[in-house]
Amino acid sequence: MGLVGLGVLGLALIYLFLAATQSLAPETLPPDLAKDLADLHPLGVGVGLLVGGVLSWLALLAPVRRAVARVVPIRPDSVANAVALALLVLLWSQSVALSGLGPQGFLDLAGPVSVGQVVLAEVPLAVLGMAGVGLFTRRSLAETWQRLGLGGLNWRQVGLSVAGALGLVACEVAFNWVASRIAPQAFDELNRATNALYGGVNTVTAAVVVALASGVAEEILFRGALQPRFGLVPTALSFGVVHLQYGVTWALVSVGLIGLVLGLYRQRMNTTACILVHGLYNLAIFLLPS
Question: Contact at 8 Å (CB) between 2 and 60?
């Protein structure tokens, strides 16, 4: 983790150097790079990564973890918890660093994504969650499944999960209606960027694959691995922060609410229920008209 933090600091210095060049000697930059930097805002990215790299090192110090343990239910003497805390700091810093792009800026940087790209982006989250709870190091596959909360559901729990997904969709529709009237320009910008970003998800099959991939991977990491250790609210906050790629907009409130609801399903049922709610919600959002 010390080496990972060092790598993040090195990347931060590169962005800060590019920001300085952009400001002091823009004529020395190749045209394509200059255009990319204009969309990227390298100063904000560099500062965010710099802070994250330093904080990830601090998270490895026992006194810091003992202080964190007073407010977050981690075990300060656990190496696994230290690594998880450092990785979470890096995840936060990366998301915050990119949050200044805004919807259109993120679209300009990432471009439209294919189904395969979405799936490949989600797989590391599931791997991180399983590795973080000790798959094949401290736990067998069955023990890992149990620790992650991946159990069965009875018909009552399935029904409650479907109802939860429908309720979240209804809240999202209502929230969008309000946002479109309070801040129509911001709403239209976010809507256009989202539709353009996921323009490749244009069939029912593609929507099912993307909804399932994101639902499974994100729930394994957040509700399965992180929530039992970090608690409901910090996990929901982290879930919201990693969706900051569109910038600090009204959508962040919606994502935070979804994170809290999914966390309650984890507390009262299991992670499988969270996957079902999350997957059905995503699928409905993809299939509903814009």
Answer: yes
Distance in Å from the first CA to the final CA of the chain:
42
Q: pLDDT value at position 161?
A: 97
- Residue 267 is predicted with a pLDDT of 96
Report d(CA 178, CA 97) in Å as an integer.
Answer: 28
- Kindly state whether residues 107 and 134 are assigned to the same domain: no
Please name the residues in contact with 46: beta carbons below 8 A apart, sequence gap of 6 or more: 12, 13, 14, 15, 16, 18, 19, 97
Q: For residue range 220-244, what is the model confidence (pLDDT) as tens digits?
A: 999 999 999 888 998 998 898 887 7
**Same domain (yes/no): 212, 130:** yes
**Together in a domain, 19 and 134:** no
- Domain end, chosen from 60, 83, 111, is at 111
In whole angstroms, how far apart are CA 72 and each of 81, 89, 259?
11, 14, 17
pLDDT (average), residues 14-18: 93
Q: Are residues 98 and 116 in the same domain?
A: no
Tokens of 185: 């320009």
What are residue 117's phi and psi, to 5 degrees?
-65, -40
Report pLDDT for 157.
Answer: 97
Task: Name the helix (H) or strand (E) containing 7.
Answer: helix 2-24
- Stated pTM of the model: 0.86
Task: Point out the domain boundary residue: 44, 77, 111.
Answer: 111
pLDDT digits (tens, 9 = 90+) for 172-198: 899 888 888 888 887 787 788 778 778
